[in-house]
Amino acid sequence: MANGKWKSDSQGAKGVPKAVVYRLSLYLRELQRLIRGGDTMASSGKLGKLLGLTDAQVRKDLAIFGQFGHPGVGYRCEDLVGAIKGILGTDREWTVAMIGAGNLGRALLGYRGFASQGFRVAAVFDADPAKIGQSLEGLVVEDVERLSEVVREREISLGLIAAPAEAAQEAATRLAAAGVVGILNFAPVTLHSLPVEVSQVSVDLATELEQLSFAVANRPETR
Amino acid sequence: MANGKWKSDSQGAKGVPKAVVYRLSLYLRELQRLIRGGDTMASSGKLGKLLGLTDAQVRKDLAIFGQFGHPGVGYRCEDLVGAIKGILGTDREWTVAMIGAGNLGRALLGYRGFASQGFRVAAVFDADPAKIGQSLEGLVVEDVERLSEVVREREISLGLIAAPAEAAQEAATRLAAAGVVGILNFAPVTLHSLPVEVSQVSVDLATELEQLSFAVANRPETR
Predict the structure, then answer these.
(1) Is B48 annotated as contributing to ligand binding?
(2) Residue B4 falls within a domain, yes or no?
(3) Which residues bind DNA (chains A, B) (predicted)?
(4) Which residues, including other chains, have CB under 8 Å from residue B145's CB and lie 6 or more apart?
(5) Does pLDDT of A14 surpass 60?
(6) Do the strands A139-143 and A119-126 form a parallel or antiparallel pair, or are they unpaired?
(7) Cβ <8 Å between A209 and B87
(8) How many contacts (CB atoms, under 8 Å) link A and B?
(9) Considering A68, B6, B22, B76, which has the largest number of Cβ atoms within 10 A of its Cβ?
(10) What CATH number corresponds to the domain at position B48?
(11) Closest Cα of chain B to A36: distance in Å?
(12) pLDDT per position as a tens digit, B110-139
């Protein structure tokens, strides 16, 4: 069960295609469900069937990161969960700065999943004088002008942009200048001109809507 | 280029595995990007390379829905975009009821992507007397007790749950009883006991965080 180093892959900027990393999250969810259901082993065929992937695709995805399975036996669920968390980097705590104390920022601050996944929001910023100084989920909203100073002081490594579209680029530029290494962008705009060493992920709510639309348009029978 | 009917697939409740439907959204985004870049044709190998999938997986996914490509030539981008939109059901307008006029509901009401994808929010509900009657993005927050009546009157077909976790199940039950055919759930809880004809999609923000965590943990060099 070596995690090890994995070979660089020319298909993606970070060495691994984004779609493969997304599938790691899906494998993780299915493995956790299997464990809750009492399973200890899972084959690539079983994981593939749960996700509509061929067993060859599952083996190919996981083989990028190391040798996890046992031929003819499959994967040990607990071991593979630990290995995937290690690969995803969710086996440690991340300190997060949130930009935007509006509706979305407040909603995200209250989102339980952040803390349980090890993402601790250590600062919230806004440019609106009416919001600065307000208390939110145990944090005081700070002036975005202080962002750089606070990010350094509190050793914040990730930024979460919950600002309006028109403010997102400036927020990203400030975060990058302050030294964060990753930005999760909820604003519906593409960020540009960021240093190559700052990772970015954008949340695409349109995809979720399309999934629902599909499910409805193709449900077994209409009432 | 027949859209046609597709065969039922035993792997998923709706006939097609969710992961395949998710990949349709990814194919759609890549095709739209290719078109913006001036491309008119795309092979399964090209689409696969952009998403880290084998060309066989791409062909297998699309073959579920019909015969779209031309052997040795590939897919016509515009035609495949139209076909995928037709499959996803995003080639028409959907009328949506939002439950929850708190921070998340307000944030989602202001999200541009909804309208541009053809999802029109026609009503917003809350149980809090302090919120009922407030005006939000051109809508007046209504008493959730009136949900059933309003859903029928305005012929609303989808529900969007932006309520707190503890209120999500009741909201879902009300929506289903009122006759919506699909529910997009932003609350971090699993909904249960819904009629089989009501489709559900849950938004998992943890996946997005894992993608960022991975990108950061595996970025080319540390500064």
Answers:
(1) no
(2) no
(3) 26-65
(4) B127
(5) no
(6) parallel
(7) no
(8) 246
(9) B22
(10) 1.10.10.10
(11) 15
(12) 776 677 667 899 999 999 999 999 999 899
